[in-house]
Amino acid sequence: MEIAKEAGALLSYDPNPREALWSSREEARTKILSIWDQADIVKVSESEVEFLTGIDSVEDDVVMKLWRPTFKLLLVTLGGKGCKYYARDFRGVVPSYKIQQVDTTGAGDAFVGALLRKIVQDPSSLQNQEKLEEAIKFANACGAITTTKKGAIPSLPTEIEVLQLMENA
């Protein structure tokens, strides 16, 4: 991480904790947060906010307990309700797309991958709310489409499928 950061890489962190892999919740929380400050972009789910803060809420005051001055973007995915985002100078909510869910496996990874692709294509989106919201809409569409089929990899959409969903929504 240090070498990547020194080289100017954008560091993204999606902790995705699996409690069964840790000896305790506290150990998992401590280890996950031990590298928190090194990330530029962090994505957590609703349940991960509770896991990391100990508070069962995604209200702004709770989510902001996870914010660090080093962040460029903090995201909270809300499943079928969309995504909350917190940048240095602005914040907001982007709703999801209404689809018929079959299997949610891989939706978060599809969301993160799509969002990172958009940010790499246009890094200024981290400082421009309108551009960031467009990138998150694209990522939400990727995540939504991924839930319409079984399996994480076979369900990943093409860009054409994503753009069609966005256009028809």
UniProtKB/TrEMBL annotation:
The keyword Zinc does not apply. One of its GO terms (biological process) is fructose metabolic process. InterPro entries: Carboh/pur_kinase_PfkB_CS, PfkB_Carbo_kinase, PfkB_dom, Ribokinase-like. One of its GO terms (molecular function) is fructokinase activity. One of its GO terms (cellular component) is cytosol. PROSITE patterns: PFKB_KINASES_2. Keywords: Kinase, Transferase. Residues 2-158 form the Carbohydrate kinase PfkB domain. The keyword Transferase applies. Belongs to the carbohydrate kinase PfkB family. This is Carbohydrate kinase PfkB domain-containing protein. It comes from Aegilops tauschii subsp. strangulata (Goatgrass). The lineage of its organism: Eukaryota, Viridiplantae, Streptophyta, Embryophyta, Tracheophyta.
